[in-house]
Design brief:
It is a single chain. The chain is an alpha/beta fold and 185 residues long. The protein has one domain (9-182): Flavodoxin domain (Rossmann fold, 3-Layer(aba) Sandwich), CATH 3.40.50.360. Helices cover 33% and strands 22% of the residues. The chain contains 6 helices and 6 strands, in the order βαβααββαβαβα. Strands 1, 2, 3, 4, 5 and 6 form a 6-stranded mixed beta sheet that branches. Helix 1 packs parallel to helix 6 (172-182). It is globular and about 45 Å long. It starts with 8 loop residues before the first strand and ends with a helix. The model has no long low-confidence stretch (mean pLDDT 95).
Amino acid sequence: MPYLNLMKHIIVISSSLRAHSNSEALAGEFVRGAREAGHQVELVSLKDKDIRFCRGCLACQKSQRCVIHDDAVAIVEKMREADVIAFATPIYYYELAGQLKTLLDRANPLYSGNYRFRDIYLLFAAAENEPETPQGAMHGLEGWIACFEKARFAGSIFAGGVNAPNEILGHEGLRIAYETGKSVR
């Protein structure tokens, strides 16, 4: 029987700009689990990245490249080549962090191109801990995923009730993020 390479190429994009952020801790545990499972994993932080707003020119629909030359171009290429994408974000005003939304808008060149990703995960943390807290962020990402017919929403990890840096330490969400990363197939 031939050997099947089951290793996945995973990119985890952390959108928090804060040091010791709770959503980045979730990302770190997802990465740790996925690496232990034998996957190739890259963690990309949007911290200190120059990511400008989409102009809506749609030139990327013809060329599969953005006309804006900033850090988003390289990140979008990494997204194109990944089998799995996990987005980690703090919840701001019951939505995705603005820097993640801007990156998703800039990923428009992927829409008409040949992308590899199939499974998309969302890892998010918020000060609020009500059941409805993650709904806006989920809705935003699900709308993006709906534009990619070969992709699917594979799961989410929500860590609520964490606000201050490192407040997530000891939170059950870290264990779940690790186990989810380890279970990627």
